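User: Please predict the structure of the protein below. I'd like the answer in structure-token form so I can feed it into my own downstream comparison script.

Assistant: Understood. Taking the following sequence of 419 residues as input:
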Amino acid sequence: MKRFIAITLASLSILSSNVYAAEFNINGNKVNADVQAVDGKSMIPIRDLLEALNYDVEWNDKTKTVTANGENGKAVFKFKTDEEIKAENTHNDNKFGLVYDGAITENVDGKVNIHPISYELKGWKVAANVYTPAGYDETSDKKYPAVVVAHPNGGVKEQVAGLYAQNLAENGYIAITADALYQGGSEGQPRNIDNPANRVEDIHRMVDIISQYPGVDSERIGALGICGGGGYTIKTVQTDKRIKAVATLSMFNTGVVRKNGLANSQADTIQERLKSTSDARAKEAAGEDIPYTTNMLDTVTEEEANKLPDGMYKEGYFYYGVTHKHPNSTFTYTESSLMELVSFDATHNAELIDQPLLMMAGSNADTLYLTEEVYNAATGTDNKELYLIDGASHIQTYWVPEYVEEATGKLVDFYGKNL
């Protein structure tokens, strides 16, 4: 465990040339001081000093900022280097691994830019992307509203969540989207745990980070949850009032569907499935190989998928497995996850939502009833709207240009009025 030693400004005034501004996060508080380099080695002496005192230290050459944190690690993030970004994204020609149409391919001054960062949650590193508007200058006093974007079940930040984050940045917002802990590019073992409490904490942590990101007005933070990320966003905003306006797109109430099946198609098998998940938990406790659910992207061929009934699962196969495929995206999760999932319901305590609420879904979505149920349960806010995207299915709201444009326009109007 790291010692948590308070460092005063006086103890840092040990250098004599090339003054830089340093920012330290000490006991959860920001401390700024002018410090100096030695022999042109930037902040290395300061970094060595803090590491000797058993701090984790991050150094950003671009902004000449070093951040040190002890046990709590609050609101500390690190910009990834070009080398790290390149090493993490080798599956396509996009430098950042983005798989949606119109994605940023390089950062250009004066344009919308993307900033891959990492930060800690529960001792693991979270992989995230921050999108900044055209003309953004981190040294300016200008403040921007911000939006945290939670990705779908099985999805990653480079897919639909990134698309909407980029669209929001194009309309003047700073937006962050992060891979859930244990999933995607984020750390965490065992892999692909799907725990509602974790997903909710993922969103709380995005708010922690973005609220202290340069240029963000911490009093103007909104949230957007997509698919399963929508259900978890609904749960998050019931208690996290730092989020001033909340929107969902094609919301998926994961626990309800995992318990009863889509449209209650599996309600009569719940006890059998709970026995299976209990057995899986016992195997984990005994140190055996961790049982995982079947990943249809690996077991179903395109020909077989074409024969599936029209709807979210069929379209999801082609979105995640063919047209917008990403190596970190998967439909599998630990079998023991079901133990926590079946007790989750986004409608529970929905009356605690008093923020402005926008819930969007395709009029042809087979998941529309899930959005309607949460909308009706959210009785604590008078400022709410259920908006149907005419003709769209669940998955089509992720990528079909006219539906994405319509949803983006609605989001910009909504956040513009409420942030």
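That's the full token string. The chain has two domains: 1-74, 75-253+294-331+345-418.
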